[in-house]
Design a protein that fits this description.
Length: 741
């Protein structure tokens, strides 16, 4: 029998080799494992560990986190089964993950999962093989035209994948194989693609006086070598990009990595071209359309420091930068920076947090900064750098309202006479017009004229949107789709289904009828298959290969179309109707200002025509008179009075379930258990405006607190009073919510 005393020293030794490992799952705690024989891996290392019945990849944490449900018998610890050869996450990334988890109340494991979004990194690195010519080899015994073509192409000595060589030579891979057998070609490892190295001084341009001043301020912030936030606030077309490029150059000179965040990375071919002009090579791009191997390569490049400048969507914030020294958030006001899925975070705000942890400078750029950033600039928390005029010297566009109550379009049409006139004139002058409507598809609602039947999504509280070009009725919430029927499914009558209201496809149809001679381009994400095609359309517009452009918000952001002179807003009121949303006014102001800001950027002053039923609405009036200050004053005063962000904190709790009663019951129970607090108001529970999504019934609660209250602490205390939620009921917490639907 083993003597217990004999065992003890062994157990102690084993305890000393304990490693806390965090797993990328919905848990907030680390688990202890025995270190591998070679010793405790450094923090941030990726290791393989047994977890339940599976083997999973986890991250070595520097300290244990959370309390295990029951104390673990050290003798029963399982061992780390392997250390992966992926570069470890920098310790700063671990701190960043903890910060986000603490702030958003998301499980730390889910935050870390966002940092592991390149699966290829964790797989063994396999070299890819290609073929290359054998110098001085004899000609193959049997020469054919196909073989000759292959040898001609390969004569440059490059290593190519077999398939691409065959494709270039217009033959089968069999021909290539034949030449390998004949000893003319040989297999060789394809060298890893390297990240290009941008040169800070590749090309410098002459800056305007205003730009020069702004650049000095940004450079000083970078040189300061400490945490600083600068709001780069410049009207549309003022040349903000050129200005922050100088800050990028400075950070590069200092040997630091740079991240430029853009809301709509898919649409930035123009941006990439400008970057290349300035720095001599394209930046490293990070977005969802990358292939698996590309993701792996870039993730590694960022971790090793080979990638110097990354341009990416919000997820680029979670790459493993070794020496990040500057973040630029372009179009910082954009709602696309908020993620409303799993971990609810606002990437612009998290960029500021990342900069503060890394003690470096962050630049927030916009022509229509968020109210939050304005207030921070006013109170001196952020530096405020202003570019007051357009670089080209042209004035900002002249904006007019078309009062639809007085000048409505003809029946069944959507463009009012003054807008049609405007387009006609612009066409005659050989310039481009842009029509903006933030609604995909042909019509937002289809109904039967005989029985009144309306097409509704079977899984969501939403009408089905007609997409006539694709011949489908679609739900924009869950993706449900139905071929457009010929007969009404309710009364069986044929030819009685009518489309109600316009979407961009319907506007395009009207434009084609009215201007048959014009070249039309329709830009809507659902009609364009992929990134490359989307970029091609944008380039066609830039080259003036379209006269009239019709688009959703894809066209609103950041583009520079020199010949675009007229912007028409088909429905200016669309965003104002969202009652419960405290940012509805702000968002409408930003969107209308940005879209109209596409007009007249390069040459003559542009025009913006806004079709509206509410020309006197304060937001509309501010847009029409170009009076941003009036809008800001009013909006800031309202936020202050209502304790709305940034003067107050909001947190939404969303309960959902397939079972209607269960969702309501749990929501009420949660409300019941709210700890009393003078400084915090709980609103709800109420059924969500979109009561059902994907078959799940939804209830909402909103907690509202003064700015100085730690709302996270309150929520943690509150939620810890809840018994574990059972069944399919889900509770999600959304700190600083942007969506109230
Ligand atoms: N110093 C400069 N020299 C030459 N061209 C410039 C300079 N600064 C800006 N430009 C040009 O002016 C145009 C507008 O600049 P840019 O796109 O940077 O403006 P922006 O402020 O980012 O606009 P928006 O907010 O509307 O996206 C671009 O075509 C840009 O190349
Ligand atoms: Zn649906």
């Amino acid at each position: 029998m083993t003597n217990l005393l004999d065992l003890q020293p062994d157990v102690k030794a084993r305890q000393g080799e304990c490693v806390p490992v965090l797993l990328p799952v919905a848990l907030d705690q680390t688990y202890d494992y025995l270190a591998p024989p070679e010793g405790v891996p450094p923090p941030g290392s990726f290791v393989l560990v047994p977890f339940g019945p599976q083997s999973r990849i986890g991250i070595v944490w520097d300290e244990p986190r959370g309390t295990p449900a029951k104390p673990i018998d050290p003798a029963k610890l399982k061992a780390v089964t392997g250390t992966l050869d992926a570069p470890p996450l920098p310790v700063l990334s671990l701190r960043f993950a903890e910060w986000i988890a603490g702030y958003t109340l998301a499980p730390l494991g889910m935050v870390v999962r966002m940092m592991m979004s390149a699966r290829e990194v964790f797989e063994p690195q396999k070299p890819r093989f290609g073929v290359t010519i054998v110098e001085g080899a004899a000609m193959p015994p049997r020469m054919t035209p196909a073989r000759q073509r292959v040898l001609d192409i390969a004569s440059d000595g490059l290593i190519r994948a077999k398939s691409s060589l065959a494709q270039e030579a217009a033959c089968t891979t069999g021909v290539v194989d034949g030449l390998i057998t004949a000893g003319c070609l040989v297999e060789a490892a394809i060298p890893q693609k390297r990240c290009p190295i941008p040169e800070p001084h590749h090309r410098t341009i002459e800056l305007s006086e205003d730009q020069e001043r702004a650049v000095m301020a940004l450079r000083a912030a970078v040189d300061g070598g400490t945490f600083a936030v600068t709001l780069l606030d410049g009207v549309t077309g003022s040349g903000k990009t050129e200005v922050y490029y100088e800050a990028v150059a400075r950070a590069l000179e200092r040997g630091r990595q740079v991240l430029i965040m853009l809301p709509e990375i898919a649409l930035t071919s123009q941006f990439m071209g400008r970057f290349q002009d300035r720095f001599g090579c394209p930046p490293v791009e990070w977005h969802s359309a990358l292939s698996g191997p590309e993701r792996g390569r870039i993730w590694r490049g960022v971790a090793t420091g080979e990638a110097r400048v990354v341009v990416g969507a919000r997820s680029a914030l979670f790459l493993p930068y070794t020496d990040l020294g500057l973040i630029v958030v372009d179009e910082e006001h954009d709602g696309g920076f908020k993620q409303d899925d799993r971990v609810h975070y606002q990437a612009r705000d998290m960029a500021v947090v990342r900069a503060s942890l890394g003690r470096f400078s962050v630049v927030l750029a916009s022509a229509t900064p968020s109210i939050e950033s304005h207030v921070n600039a006013r109170t001196g928390r952020y530096n405020h750098v202003v570019l007051p005029g357009r670089f080209s010297g042209t004035e900002l566009p002249e904006i007019e309202a078309i009062d639809l109550r007085r000048e409505p379009p003809e029946k069944g049409r959507w463009l009012a006479p003054p807008l049609v006139e405007g387009i006609t004139e612009t066409l005659a002058r050989g310039q481009q017009s842009l029509l903006f409507l933030n609604r995909r598809g042909y019509a937002p609602l289809t109904l039967c004229q005989k029985c009144g039947h309306r097409f509704e999504c079977p899984q969501c509280t939403a009408w089905l949107v007609e997409h006539r070009f694709r011949k489908k009725l679609n739900c924009h919430h869950c993706g449900f789709s139905l071929p457009i029927p010929e007969k009404c499914p309710s009364c069986g009558e044929a030819d009685k289904l009518t489309a109600c209201g316009p979407g961009v496809e319907r506007v395009a149809e009207e434009v084609a009828e009215r201007f048959p001679e014009a070249r039309i381009e329709l830009l809507s994400s659902d009609l364009i298959p992929g990134l490359t095609e989307m970029r091609r359309v944008i380039e066609r517009i830039e080259r003036h290969e379209a006269d009239i452009i019709i688009g959703t918000q894809l066209v609103a952001k950041g583009h520079h179309f020199p010949d675009l002179n007229l912007v028409g807003i088909v429905d200016g009121d669309l965003g104002l109707a969202q009652g419960a949303d405290p940012r509805a006014g702000e968002r409408t102001f930003q969107l209308l200002h940005q879209v109209t800001g596409r007009a007249g950027r390069a040459f003559a002053r542009g025009r913006g025509l806004i079709q509206t039923h509410l020309p006197d609405h304060p937001v509309m009036a501010a847009i029409i008179h170009g009076d941003r200050e009036a809008f800001l004053e009013r909006e800031i005063a309202q936020r202050q009075a209502g304790l709305l962000p940034p003067y107050g904190r909001l947190a939404a709790l969303i309960v959902s379930s397939r079972d209607k009663q269960a969702a309501e019951m749990i929501a009420r129970d949660i409300a019941h258990r709210a700890p009393p607090a003078e400084q915090i108001r709980i609103l709800g529970p109420t059924e969500a405006p979109i009561a059902i999504i994907r078959g799940r019934h939804r209830w909402r609660l909103l907690a509202k607190a003064r700015r100085d209250i730690d709302i996270q602490n309150y929520l943690r205390a509150w939620l810890s009073r809840m018994p574990p939620i059972k069944g399919d009921v889900r509770l999600s917490v959304d700190i600083d919510p942007y969506s109230f639907l």
